[in-house]
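This section describes the prediction task in plain terms. A model, or a person checking by hand, is given the sequence of a single protein chain and must write out its three-dimensional structure as a string of tokens. No templates, partner chains or ligands are provided. The sample shown here is typical of the held-out split.
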Amino acid sequence: MKFTDTSQLSYQNIRMILPMFFLILVVFGMIPSSVSAESEYTHGWLSAPDWVLARIDKNILPDLFIPKNLTGKSEEIPTVTSYVQEGNDLLASSSFEAAKESFDGAIVLNSRSFDAWLGKGYALEGLKRYQSALESYEKAIGLSNNKVRAWVAYAGKGRALLELQQFQAAGDAFAKSISMFDRSKSGTVEELSDLYRDLAKAKAKIGDEVEASYAQRMADELMPGYGINSS
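The expected answer:
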């Protein structure tokens, strides 16, 4: 009997082959001289003693012969949460391209994930792809639904607009972020100082020296030593 594609063996064909296979084991002395009736058996559709399967070279048999539970633990199925966590870890190591791919994976599973779009915005910003980052931040804003850290998406939007030299819109985004930050009580003093510092930059770029001076003063009070031209 000849098969050109063992992966296509039917259940009936395998039942025909198994007796011959075990006969070969007997002839070549691969079956122990004493096998107790209590020998453990696998419980897949191909029921066979464990001691037999332990002697089989899995590399020369089609996967169909080997129950899946003998090949080790199945690979964990990625989730939105695992993709986002992976992306955040990659962001922390400045692996922006890989981080973007992880966040894209999360978005494929759930296109309405605030955290995935926010993370993708960070990754694209790190890659200096500011227009794409802006679009991701705006998507996150649309999905924020008053989330505690929605201010972070507005801050990202402001930074992207600042890089795109859309200074008026950047100032508006930073002002919105500061307003939401104050209500959320979720950020740090340093983060708030950065927001005021970025707002000062945007206001200075459009010639609004009064607002720029006020924002810079707030930044200095929160974190002394920050200048309006700091990078």
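For orientation: DSSP finds ten helices and no strands in the chain.
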